[in-house]
Amino acid sequence: MVKAVFATETLALGINMPARTVVLEKLSKWNGEGHVAISPGEYTQLTGRAGRRGIDIEGNAVILWGNELDSTSVGGLASTRTYPLKSSFKPTYNMSINLISQFGSDKARTSLESSLAQFQADKAVVGLAKQIRKNESARDSLFIEAKCDKGDFIEYSQLRGQIKKLESDSKRSKRKRAEIDDEIASIRKRMKNHICHSCPDRENHSRFAERALRLQREIDGLTERINSRTNVIAKRFDRIKIILDKFGYIDNDQITKPGKMLAKIYGETDLLIAESIRADLFSNLSATDLVAVISSCIYESRNDEAAKIPRGEIQTALSGISKIYGRIHSAETDLNLEPMRAPDFGFCWASHKWASGNSLTSVLKGNDLTVGDFVRSMKQIIDLLRQLRVAAPHLQSVIDQALTKVDRGVIAYAGAAL
């Protein structure tokens, strides 16, 4: 019988191995971008394996003490029994192509509007709309209080507001002080000539008007937040469509030949990979070089250290990938679309060494890679190679060689174990 099993936080969430006692070294996990606190649901999933059915009366969960450990937070994790489901769904280039191919643009857009992610975004809008109605009611009351028999006091108050803004901005503005002073003097003159300037109750009216205008600015800000959340999923789909059309993957809502190729590539960098295939960046690569190059499309470094890159054709291909990413990033930025993550060269050296036949010990020597991270990244490379085999048949021979070179040893064993 196995006395103890050690697993990384990522692996521990996926294995099903009941035990008498579960020990948590820390209450955080790697989410692909950084270490974040585990959720109550993940805590329950980890500690729920404590206690073997039919053997143990109860199971024990032990959390190692540390200086950064907050007992209140631990109690909250252990006592939470309801876990809100939050959708992280968002359309990708590949998904959009496949939806358009299956249903057409209109039906695909309607389907996305019915997603859980959109429902949750719309639900958040309800609270904002309620605050807007509350602010509008208060604003209207203040408008009544600011009403003046002599004329439009809101207009007069706006002039006062312009002066305050100019005086505040003058400290940071690059404009010449004389220009700002002249503009302020001009507005003061307009104020003195305004019909409301002679009102005996001018200061009271101004106070009410300024509060009303402040509420109006809050209303405008809340309205903008609502607009940014309303139909956010469908809007992302619309922007993705524009890029797909610009890059030649659709034409009048018809899937082009490149579009059919993109439909077979899944992942965060789907469009980058498809564009790299179209640019013929992979055709002149050896099997080992191909492994190193495509690793840039799946890997995410945990630090900012400069990547070590093998010389030769690999550097040429990676330079081409970087240029393609620049074009995609520019197109996304122009449309206010959340940009695709950049290619990461941090795994090129390790993956190239493994594909060249080096041992696991040799590959991991001198870097911060753990065995778990290495195996996970190599499995992702294998998955991408299999996708490329279908999407780019002209690369089949070199891909088959690459698969043979990387799917060996601990990598092959990990696949068999799964």
Automatic annotation (TrEMBL):
Any one Gene Ontology cellular component term annotated for this protein: Ski complex
Residue ranges that the Swiss-Prot or TrEMBL entry lists as coiled coil: 156-183
Keywords of the record: ATP-binding, Coiled coil, Helicase, Hydrolase, Nucleotide-binding
InterPro entries: MTR4-like_stalk (IPR048392), P-loop_NTPase (IPR027417), RNA-DNA_Helicase (IPR050699), Ski2/MTR4_C (IPR012961)
Domain ATP-dependent RNA helicase Ski2/MTR4 C-terminal: 250-416
Entry-linked SMART domains: DSHCT (SM01142)
Any one GO MF annotation of this record: helicase activity
GO biological processes: nuclear-transcribed mRNA catabolic process, 3'-5' exonucleolytic nonsense-mediated decay
The protein's name: Unannotated protein
Protein's organism: freshwater metagenome
